[in-house]
Amino acid sequence: FTDEEFLGQVLGPKNVGLRVLIPITCMYLILFISGVLGNLAVCFVIVKNKSMHTPTNYYLFSLSISDLLILILGLPNDLTIYWQQYPWLFGEVLCKGRSFVSEMTSYSSVLTIVAFSSERYLAICHPIYSHTMSGFKRTLRILCIIWTISFLFAIPFALFTKVNYIDRPFHSGNYINDSAFCALLDSNVYPKVGQYSLNPSHNNSFSRRVIPFMKSLLFCSLYILWGP
C-alpha cells in the first residue's frame, strides 16, 4: 500500500464524490440561507416589538440564537469536511472551537426546550401556581443558567478534541502528515479500526456508501422539526 491507499482503507475516501457533493452542497446552502434569514427575522421581530417581550418569546429568542450559532459557525465547517475529510487544514484552535460550539448549542437548545415545555405544562395544568411564578426576571435567570451550564459542559469536549494523526505502522510514531483529522478520540481507537478495515473480510462497501448520508439526513430532520 502507498500512504494514500493506506489512509483510504483506514479513514475512507477523502470526499464522497461530486455526484454526492453537489446535491449536499446545494442542500446545505438552502439550509444555511433559509435558517439564518428565518432566525434573524425571529430575533428582529422579538427585539423590535415590545408586545413580543414575553417569557415565551424569550425562550424562542434563545433558541434562535442557538440555531444561528450552529448555522454560522458549524454548518460551513461540516460542509468543508464533505469536500475534504482529511487532512484537517484549520489548525488545533478551530478544531477545538468546532467541538465546543457544537456541544454548547446542542445543550442550550435541549435545555431551553425542556424549560419552555415545563413552563407550558405549568401554565396549562397549574395555571394559578404558574401565574404566581411567572415573570421576566425569572425567565432571564433560567436562560442565564441554561447558557452557563451549556458553556461549562461543553468545555471538556473542547479540551479533549484535537487534531489526530495516523501512524504507519500502527504505534510506530511515524505519523502521516496527510492523515490529520479533527476528533474526540482515544489514540488507540483508530489503529483498531484501521486493522479491522484493512481485513478484506471485514471491508463493507455498503457502509462506506451509506454513512456519509446519515449526518445530512439527521441535520435535515432536525431543521424541519425545529426550524422557524
TrEMBL record:
Keyword flag Membrane: yes
Record's bilayer topology term: Multi-pass membrane protein
Domain G-protein coupled receptors family 1 profile positions: 38-228
Keywords attached to this entry: Cell membrane, Disulfide bond, G-protein coupled receptor, Glycoprotein, Membrane, Neuropeptide, Receptor, Transducer, Transmembrane, Transmembrane helix
Sequence similarity: Belongs to the G-protein coupled receptor 1 family.
Highest taxon, organism lineage: Eukaryota
Main localization category: membrane
Transmembrane regions: 20-46, 58-76, 140-160
Subcellular location: Cell membrane
Name of the protein: Neuropeptides capa receptorlike [Acyrthosiphon pisum]
Source organism per UniProt: Lepeophtheirus salmonis (Salmon louse)
A GO MF label: neuromedin U receptor activity
Pfam families: 7tm_1
GO CC entries: plasma membrane
Keyword Amino-acid biosynthesis (UniProt): no
